[in-house]
Amino acid sequence: MKVKELMTTDVVTVTPDMTLKHVAEVLAGRGVSGVPVVDPTGRVVGVISEADVLLKERGPTDERGVFARFREPRDSTATSKAAARFAREAMTSPAIMIGAERPISAAARMMIEGGVNRLPVTKDGELVGIVTRADLVRAFTRPDDLVAEEIRIDVIERAMWLPVDQVEVTVRDGNVELAGMVPTRTDAEVLERLVARVLGVVSVSSQIRWERELPEALVR
What we know:
- Helices cover 37% and strands 24% of the residues.
- By secondary structure, the protein is α/β, with parallel strands linked by helices.
């Protein structure tokens, strides 16, 4: 499954010069937790979220007093965001973005590694959508038959270049069982890894056999 199949195309955006008051109104009015910040040319320059607005609500922290020296050094980014008046001062920049043709597994990895809840989606440099953690969670609940279909078409046929009927795929509650024959042991190992990355897969049990071993030099 690709990002473009899961993303929301009706993207709410704000401009860098929009006040935080206005940003808060947009977030509350559209029922979203974060939006891309787009400059006059349509380029995504950052992302602003409820958390950024809340830093303004909280205000700067006060580290004076006898216990100040025992505290962690104040986060300069949080401090500057607490003093922000406009979106450009509170947004997270540069924005972490993803291409519309990228796999959902890549979006999940980027969100986890980047510690973000949403990714602006681009195609040929143009903003075409947004994908969130909630979107990925909803996709994870897909029926077993759709998960099995993606494994057969996207993994076995398109990624591995194998005949679909060469590998038997059974999915029960997200648990995948693979059986059949592939050319090499390396193919069997790659197939198992790719299947494990399919959204909605909980576990993979493989009974795949292979016809021959690759020469050691090729494996390296």
